[in-house]
Amino acid sequence: MHGSSEGSDDRGSLEALSRRIAALEEQVAAQERIIEGLRVKEALLARTEDEHRLMRAALDCCTDFVGIASLDGKGLHVNTAGRRLVGLASADEVQSTVNADYVMPEDVSRLEKEIVPIVVTEGRWEGELRCRHMPTGEPIVVAYSGYLVRHPETGAPLGLATVMRDLRAEQGEAEERQRLLEQQSAAAAALRHEQARMSSLDEERQQMIAAVEACADFIGICTLDGRTIYCNAAGRRLIGYDVDADMRGFEVIQAFTPAGGRHFLEHIVPAIRATGRWEGELEFKHLQTGEPFPTQYNAFLIRDQHTGQPICIGAVTRDLRAARRAEQERRRLLDEIIRAQASMLAELSTPLIPISDRVVVMPLIGTVDEARAEQVLESLLSGVTARNAKVAILDITGVATVDVAVAEALLHAAKAVRLLGAEVVLTGIRAEVAQALIEIGVDLGNIVTRSTVQSGIAFAMRRA
User: Fold this and answer.
1) Most buried of 3, 34, 154, 223 (most Cβ within 10 A)?
2) In angstroms, rounded to a whole number, what is the distance separating the alpha carbons of residues 464 and 454?
3) CB-hemisphere CA count at 13 Å for 289?
4) Comparing C-alpha atoms, which of 432, 426, 388 is closest to residue 409?
5) What's the rounded Cα separation, in Å, for the pair 249 and 228?
């Protein structure tokens, strides 16, 4: 009986030990699953932060004001150019601002009652507005574009994006382009703290992606050897690349014309590596049609925020075709105005005044050159023919200088009028004019001359 009791106790101990071992193994497996989940989240966080840094760097290299605000109008992020435009000293100051701080006090009501409601309901508003330089209160006229930022997957509203372009440069006040790249704060040491921040970082990344995608200009990022990392929708449409296709790895040189590609490789890339950026005109082509078109190409080097080493190249590109067409149209209209003014001046400089049904007077004022002489002859002949005039009076009282060319023009006009069956009377010959004609040996022939236009009219009325 005693031996049976001891065997029963041993079996109970073994069973308890087995249960303990099984529980420990389950705990170990659970710990391994937790660790694996943390590793996955850590990798996702690293990728999220890399994309976040690239997007922030691209936005901060944009020369326009680009800002992100929450749906209730609180400032979340403003790029470097934007902070310089409104006078914010650091990125930290953005967090304490609201949308109304960025516009002139007189325009706050318009922003809150007109612009923001349109952005929220329709998704977009564009127009001219006055933003405010915060330290000085100086008004700055800008082209203002407001967008409702939505999550690309769920479509839920995330915040408000603003793009403002300083119009003072277009009014002749050129401003230095912003080149500095903002560095993001160093990653927190503890993984749990990073997990807590991961949600907000991802939301901000989505907002920045949405803001870049909504930008009307071509914004792209490529590797140092020229292979595409990212290109926004406007850029894809500009070069004719499928908006929904994967563009990673696409060689950017394929988007240039042959001459533009050579210029990119031989001049632009070396300049970017040497100075950190390049800005100028570059000729692109449409991938589907092959059509070449000019652009304003702004390329910049993006560096790692920790090591300072170059990691990729960013570019902001603007299509110049519309601007070129507008300039050509402006020049065409200006040429038409000049031609119309010249025609009007020509008519005013050679007026033909009817005195009666058979007598007309043309007073000449100023200088008579070859072109003016042709106008005089044309107006005189057409007027004599149209009115069936018998006498045409040419009054040269207002002609500053009478030389050989002027005299020959008058003789030519008299002969042409005579062929039409009319007679020319020349009036306004002053004493110094008569002396000058004698000195240069000009013979007015059979042209009737009178000293004043009044005596010329009297003579003409008798002859007509």
Assistant:
1) 223
2) 15
3) 9
4) 426
5) 5
The two three-digit tokens of residue 24, written as one number: 């420990």
Provide the pairing of β-strand 124-132 with 139-150: antiparallel
Rounded to whole angstroms, the Cα distance separating 437 from 462 reads: 28
How far apart CA 302 and CA 57 sit, in angstroms, is 7
Lowest mean pLDDT among 23-32, 201-210, 249-258, 366-375: 201-210
Residue pLDDT, tens place only, 340-399: 655 554 544 567 788 888 888 988 877 777 777 788 888 888 888 888 889 988 888 887
d(CA 320, CA 146): 23
Position 163 scores a pLDDT of 92
Closest CA to 283 of 309, 302, 255, 310: 255
Gap between the Cα atoms of 63 and 41, Å rounded: 35
CB-CB neighbours of 26 under 10 Å = 10
Q: What is the mean pLDDT of residues 415-426?
A: 88
Report whether pLDDT(174) > 50.
Answer: no
Q: Please state whether 187 falls in left (phi above 0), alpha (psi between -120 and 50) or beta.
A: beta
pLDDT at 110 over 50: yes
Non-local (6+) Cβ contacts of 371 within 8 A are none
Six token digits for residue 53: 């840094």
User: Structural domains in the chain?
Assistant: 27-168+192-215 (3.30.450.20), 216-319 (3.30.450.20), 350-463 (3.30.750.24)
More confident residue, 56 or 1: 56
341 contacts 96 by C-beta, under 8 angstroms: no
Tally the residues of the chain.
464
Question: What amino acid occupies position 449?
Answer: T
Q: Which amino acid is at 371?
A: A
pLDDT digits (tens, 9 = 90+) for 282-328: 999 999 999 999 999 999 999 988 888 999 999 999 999 888 888 88
Q: Is 109 exposed, middle or buried (CB count within 10 Å of its CB: 0-12, 13-18, 19+)?
A: exposed
Quick one: pLDDT at residue 448?
Answer: 85
Long-range contacts of 131-137 (CB under 8 A, 24+ apart): 131/65, 131/85, 131/86, 131/102, 131/103, 131/104, 131/164, 132/86, 132/101, 132/102, 132/103, 132/104, 132/105, 133/85, 133/86, 133/87, 134/86, 134/87, 134/88, 134/101, 135/87, 136/87
